[in-house]
Amino acid sequence: MNLNQLKVNGELTYRGRKYIILDIEPPIITIKRYDGDGATIDINFFDLVTDPSFLPSKKMKKQLDDVNKYYTSLLDSLSEKEREEVSRRLEIIKPILVFERIKNNEFNAFYEFNEYYRDLLRNGETVQDLTKEALYERLAVKYCKSSRTVKRYYSSFNKAELENGEGDEGLISKSGQGHLYRRDNKILEICHPKHREVVLQSLTIRMDDSYIPIIKDAIEREYLSVKKVSKKAVYDLIEAKCASESLKPPPPITVYKLLGRISAKITDRLRLGSISDQKYQEITRGYSNNEALYPLHIVQIDHTQLDLDVLDEVGHVVGRPWLTLGIDVYSRKVWCFHLSFDPPSGNKVRKAIEQGVLLKKTKDRYNTHNEWIVYGIPNTFVFDNGKEFKNYEIERLIKDELKSHIRYRPIATPRYGGSIERLFGTINTQLIHRLEGTRKSTFSELGDYDPEKNALLSLEDVEELLTTYITDIYHHQPHKGLPLDQPTPMSRYVEGLKLSGYPEFISMEEETTFKIKLLPTIKKPYTRDGIRHNTRLYKSAALNGLIDSRNKKYLIKYDIDDISKIFLQHPETKEYHLVPCVSPPENTVDGMKESTFQLLKKQLKEQGKITSGQYVTEQQLSKAKEDLQRKYEEKYKKGRRARLEAKRHNFQVSLDIPAVNEPVDKNKPKSYKDILMASLEKEKRAKGIE
Fold first, then answer.
1. Which residues form the Integrase catalytic domain (predicted)?
2. What is the DSSP letter of 302?
């Protein structure tokens, strides 16, 4: 994945012509034709990077001919042990990558090196005194490698980065792989003991098929548990099970070697539990609430459950949604958020990071007055100690994919998350507590108000209102934590960019690839019926050649926010292909969340129309939607009457907002946005805030 950054003297392609960047004065980029003496062009940064003709470098990307092919990933097909080796090699050469950026006079790189790699400097030495050769040698000593090996890692990374934008693939070990292609190889998949659909590691073995389920069961149920049974005890269990099935037990050394091949991180995590954090999580000793020095230097991410009852997509009150939100500590601007009924999880963190990295395009989506211009790759993520953050997949995404860093807040020290906690309070006070269905902050504030009966807004409504509030109000109002000469998050952010330049970003042409890379993965068989996932079937005629028995499994990526399709990795080309849902049909569940589908399925089960594990047909799904809508109509008649009453009083509950240049019609019914913004403006005037 190419992490792009526009720099002075850098090249770009715009409307089919090559340009050179003469100056960057946020938010304006000054460019000039590369092959002529034409006049310079001043263009807004956001307008430039969102133009369909924009390419961030002179190198044109290769387009795939097959529209169903998305991207190729060799890393996804590696075993856990091989993937860990790639991460270790990347960690070794990261200081060299930062050092190269310093040589290119990148403002942020100086701070990053001094913050994370100061141990590579000698007494009194500065990074400007350091040479690349000396850095090779010191990294070799630090990681017990030869300087030649470190150089080879760095060279392989650069070569892969230039060829396909995937430098990490150059770090894949190519030694000792001959055994992988033997015809008598069998695959032993080690799954999570509590989540059987999650494959932790795949091991190649050469044993009769009858031994595989016995060994697999002993490893998952006994060895990978906090009981911490010994290898000898595991072998005894395997020996007893073989005897009961009249099988000759395998030699003890075979089982011991097999257990030794399981990733140490997997065994420690499942056998030691929270104690393993001392070994695998970054040490917080000496952690200080470092001051952010430039935009996206430090981003804090956390979760909160909103004080609001919300309807789901089909009008059924589900309850309070969870908001995952990230804040740029330097400017106090909101970097990302993800809103759903799902509780905090690694999937929510991934979705929030996706939204933060990519362009928001709020004017196009919600007709906001302003553009939400905060996006790109942060230098450091700060998390609390929740298990959804201490997740090796999230760690790998941030460290390997984004090339960023992670810090964890010390336990029981909420002061280190003060910026984001205050933002949660501001959002509740200025927005959530003003909406229908609010639960307020305390029971005493709620009084006789019934949030559930007064719930009128859907999850999508709240997402739109929250986006509008952040983009048009919060980013532009004074913040007590900011300097007097830069009192608003917007002014602080723009002035900071003049010092540091724009952060690295994902170009629009690579957004689809980036979104797929962030999706969680599982392994599934592809039979004549198709791919079964959560009582849905997925199938593509283009992939009929992959149909096999249930013992053969393929790597699958799925999206909890859109169940209409999944992505399957071809075992030979390593390319991901789109596979649409066929039962129910793709168009029936297009854009539907997993949580909504499960709610509808539960409704059908309660009515006795399907049994556990049975597929949901198109007719059943449509009927379930109708039934829930009828239930909503019956249960919330009072709420519906409130809507009609509001219309009669010229306060229509709608989410429409006039275009920026559209004259305001004073007789037009006011929307929730208009009422909210007018209320906030009135408060500001009362407090004497311009």
1. 291-497
2. E
The CATH superfamily label for domain 298-510 reads Ribonuclease H-like superfamily/Ribonuclease H (3.30.420.10)
pLDDT value of residue 93: 95
* CA separation for the pair 41, 666 (Å, rounded): 40
Closest CA relative to residue 516, chosen from 455, 461, 579:
579
Interval 22-34: pLDDT, tens = 888 888 999 888 7
Q: Which of these ranges, 198-212, 473-487, 544-558, has the smallest mean pLDDT?
A: 198-212
From the list 455, 407, 460, 412, the residue with the least C-alpha distance to 435 is 455
**Three-state DSSP state, 272:** helix
Per-residue three-class SS string for 339-387: EECCCCCHHHHHHHHHHHHCCCCHHHHHCCCCCCCCCCCCCEEEECCCC
Q: Which residue has the higher pLDDT, 73 or 328?
A: 328
Strand order in the sheet with 17-25: 11-14, 17-25, 28-33, 41-44
Least confident residue range of 12-16, 55-59, 211-215, 652-656: 652-656
- 514: part of which helix (H) or strand (E)? helix 511-518
CATH number of the 184-280 domain: 1.10.10.60
Beta-bridge partner residues of 556 = 522, 568
Name the residue among 552, 604, 556, 599 with its Cα closest to residue 576: 556
In terms of DSSP bridges, do strands 322-328 and 41-44 run parallel, antiparallel, or are they unpaired?
A: unpaired
- Looking at the chain, the whole-number percentage of residues with pLDDT higher than 70 is 76
Residue 663 has pLDDT above 60, yes or no: no
CA distances from 5 to 8, 81, 358 (A): 10, 33, 14
pLDDT exceeds 80 at position 269: no
The amino acid at 497: L
Most distant CA pair in the chain: distance in Å?
87
Nearest CA to 580 among 520, 531, 525?
531
Residue 581: its pLDDT value, please? Answer: 93
SS3 94: helix
Count the helices and strands in the chain (H runs, E runs).
Answer: 23, 20
Scanning 557-671, the segments in alpha helix (DSSP H) are: 594-606, 618-635, 637-648
- Name the token pair of 170: 């150059």
Give yes or no for a contact between 20 and 9, defined as CB atoms under 8 angstroms apart: yes
For the chain, the straight-line distance linking the first and the last C-alpha, in angstroms and rounded, comes to 44
Residue boundaries of the structural domains of the chain: 11-60, 79-171, 184-280, 298-510
Burial bucket for residue 350 (CB in 10 Å: 0-12, 13-18, 19+): buried
